[in-house]
Structure prediction request, 359 residues.
Amino acid sequence: MPSKIPVKNIYYLLCYSWNTLAEGDLVDVSVVDSTELADLYASVLVAGTNHILRRGLNQEYETQESDLAAIRGRIDVATSARKQLLQHGKARCVYDELSVNTLPNRLIKSTVRHLASVPNLDGSLRKQLRLLYRELGGIDDIALTRLAFRRVQLRRNARFYKFLLSICEVVAGSWLIDETTGEHRFRDFMRDPKKMARLYENFILNFFRIERPDLDVRKEKIKWAASSVDDDMLIYLPGMETDISIRDGDRTLIIDAKYYQQMFSSYYESESIHSSNLYQVFAYLKNLEERGGADAQADGMLLYPVVDQHVRLKYEIQGHGVSICTIDLAADWSDLRNELLDLVSSYGQPQVLEVVGQS
Prediction:
């Protein structure tokens, strides 16, 4: 997959993948002219953090200890006696106090600092990040580890914080140590096919959940239409689980989302569909037949994200319609969105749409 995907499209892929489209819309990425993901992250983090600064930073109660003349909270008797505070009219007090030095705020501030040090970052964005870092005074830095992000607990109404922390976690995952120099360097995840494959599959799932609310969108398992003299043997069959199942009556479509460098395999001078991809989607179709109804005549689709290439192939295979299609991730976002919606609307009003990720 050539790395020509506009960063604005990557932003929308992330927003759909995280199911934070509404929160993402609060940040205007139309002003981002750069082709660098670091610049996109910086723009989002600057705008997003300024948004929460205007609304008020997240606060939590922190336990404080102070030697006070006026009693507050509870008295630490042992410490007060050891330090002979009572003779001086004071006592060691332990009390809770609201503070902005929370784990989410610390992660955001530390990400701001890291991004400001990324080489080749836009100069204006670097300046804005440094100003923002100083504005977050009173908040401690923290190591950007996976465990730190897993420890975050947010209230249900803190969805914008969740969105910003998702950006921070992507940045943290791109902040790598160079084994030769020991220095940190920034590597965007677009160069990692596995991460891009997961992002693409999650994007397809949540795109249809959000854009087609009239359909029942969910994941589900497909059972093998298999039997054995010993039922215990069936547990050794590999599992089949769809990324998306959408039901709305009497139509079924299975889409197998594949993020590949090349959508065709080559043999000498000829090209063909990847055989394993076709076998996989056909296995889903055949094993759905046992359910009857709409599933018995399910159609299938292999959906590849390809830049600067348009493919629409359609076949009839043993009573099932099978299509091989591409979507252009380099297109203008509105065109890309319409292209995806057209894939569904071309089936009239499809009653079941199942999207299955790459295994």
User: Anything to note?
Assistant: Residues 348-352 have pLDDT under 50 and may be disordered. The chain is about 35% helix and 20% strand.
